[in-house]
Amino acid sequence: MSSFGAWPLADRAAPALIFDLDGTLIDSAPAIHAVSNAVLARQGFPALDLDEVRSFVGKGVPHLVRCLLQRHGQYPDGPLYATVHDDLILRYETEVEGNAVYPGVPEALQRLAAMGCPMAVATNKPLRPALAALRHVGLEHLFGTILGGDSLPTRKPDPAMVHEAVRRLDREDVLYIGDSEVDAETALNAGLPFLLFTEGYRKTPVSELRHAAAFGDFSQLPDIVLRWTSH
After folding, report:
1. Mutual orientation of helices 80-92 and 29-42 as an angle, nearest 10°?
2. Quick check: is 170 catalytic?
């Protein structure tokens, strides 16, 4: 049974949902790839291919910058770090072309909102670039809470960001939705059920990641949320 007009279980509130961003709601790798190569070109380094840059995504900008430098034989925390980091952040906020929602995301989020599920984003991407990306793809208005990698002193998989999102959402039942090893570890650390989107940036087989449910099509998500919270 499913009902998207309202939460169908009269004796309990609809659950809150916390989403990762990159590789979960949006395929941001093409945009990150373009920005990264523009930053590298400015330093005289050759471009990297999309798959390689995609493999650097998920642990925040400091990790991305260190990977870009290390790939070109530079000390990851050396004198170029600050220059590359600041240039990348500046471009991140304005060069948003290449960010695209995964199929079915807007419709699924609208259905979940209609069911009464309050929703948040908790991403390791810095907050202002995250807001710019969400605005670019037309999703920003669906989230009452958006936390970025610079919103708190720590990043995922440390659970502090997710705990803060839970506090703001103020619901007893909360599910965490993500696509990667970092997300699986974050959910575990935060003590939340993990719903795994299988079409993102994951490197580990689905069977080897701890999860409560997995889905490869966002049209499946509303029914998964309903089933998970109704038993």
Report:
1. 140
2. no
